[in-house]
Amino acid sequence: MTKPAPTLFTAPLTALLTALMAAGLLSACSLAPTLQRPATPVAATWPEASAADSAADGKAAADTGWRDYFADARLQQLIAAALEHNRDLRTAALRMEEARAQYDIQSADRLPNVNASVADTRARTPAFLTSSGQSTIGKRYDVGLSMPAFELDFFGRVKSLNDAALAAYLATDEARQAAQISLVADVAKAYYTERAYAEQYALAQQSFETRQRTYDLTRQRANVGASSLLDLRTNETLMETARAAALTLARQRAQAENALTLLVGQPPAPANTGGNTSTSAGGLVSDAQVDAMSALPAGLPSDLLTRRPDIRAAEQRLKSANANIGAARAAFFPRVSLTAAVGSSSPTLGGLFDSGSGSWSFAPQLVLPIFDAGRNRANLNVSEVRKNLAVADYEKTIQVAFREVADALAARSYLGDQVTAQRAIQDAQADRLRLLELRFANGVASSLDVLDAQRELFASQQTLVQARLLRTTSAIDLYRALGGGLK
């Protein structure tokens, strides 16, 4: 005989879906306070207003990709490798994936969980409990769909938790972008630092070789009585000083290479000598190129709110803390949950879908907090304090960003003149040495005067390289502080 089509799920399931749709409409409310962005705790203009205005027509840093900003082909290779292999950036990306998964978990609470179940239950009843006086074994088969404890979010508790998780995820994503910008700047600074040490080492090696030749000549003259022992020891001191300086710079260069390797995340690939680079002879960019790199419009301090990912991350953390207040407030109100199930039950497996075997259960539950020893009040206080901490963190992040840009603008204003002055000192020291060598050749000046001029020329050359490096790194700091380096 043909069995009738099962209709046992239809009516209960329709009623259940209707209840869930109504619950979804009612869950739109939230007890979270209205969030207002705190006032920007910095001045309306930069301290170096004239310097900022001088570059007002340039392209903004946030719109300038790092490939356009750093024209050195070797540096571009290193930055690209670092973005792929740097472990800190990889950790930041994984943190973002973790936050997204946490958000997905929290979002799942806004929809009911529906489970399918099949059960085979067997139970033995002892003889003294049966009317026949004989023990019996009962059998029962159940199949159906169940929805365990779905919370009807009348007061927005689940919605607030979902909003908090979303903001936390967005904050983590912004933090990843901030880490990427910092990585680009750190690789560039490490690269130019290594190049500066290489240039200083070349100067020190050149100075050592020159002083060694002078020492050898003085020793030959001392052997025949043409130079004094004092001149010999003075030349020896200068030669060994240059040698020690060269060894120190060689060590510093090796350590700078190690720092660059750590940032890149793997041993850097050999330089492509056939490519075009923008570096001048010695490794550092030219003054004209640094001028172009520094010509970034600073805009207004309020522009940093949209340019810098770290500020946007702090704002998202503030939104998350504000949403948690809504969840804490909702804990004071009744919590309504719904448990339901529809299915079929039968003492035999073959009769599960017979007519009349349908079963269902519907169990709404309301829980009203009456006494919790102050737990809910304490949770609300914690949420409010955490919001205040997020406000302080947001304001501090803006102040730090303001200071970084202001420092970079101050460096842009003064370091160019400092490099020019230091180059003039080097040129004057070189000319002084040339004149003293002429006077020494004519017997007018002493060898000690020539040695002193050599020492001061070497010091001025080293200082010039350091000043040029400082100006280059300040241009990189300005680019990073203004929100560049992401693309």
Give the class-level CATH name of the largest domain.
Mainly Alpha
Per the CATH scheme, the topology name of the largest domain is Outer membrane efflux proteins (OEP)
Say what oligomer this is: single chain
What sequence of helices (H) and strands (E) makes up the elements? HHHHHEEHHHHHEEHH
Query: Span between N and C termini?
Result: 72 Å
Question: How many structural domains can be distinguished in the coordinates?
Answer: 2
CATH architecture type of the largest domain: Up-down Bundle
Mean pLDDT rating: 85
Q: How would you classify the helix and strand content by structural class?
A: alpha+beta
Helical stretch tally: 12
Query: How would the global form be characterised?
Result: elongated
Helix content: 55-70%
Beta-strand percent range: 5-15%
Radius of gyration computed on alpha carbons: 38 Å
The unreliable regions are 1-8, 51-55, 273-282
Instruction: Specify the biggest β-sheet.
Output: 4 strands, antiparallel
Instruction: Output the strand order for the largest sheet.
Output: 1-2-3-4
Quantity of strands, as a count:
4
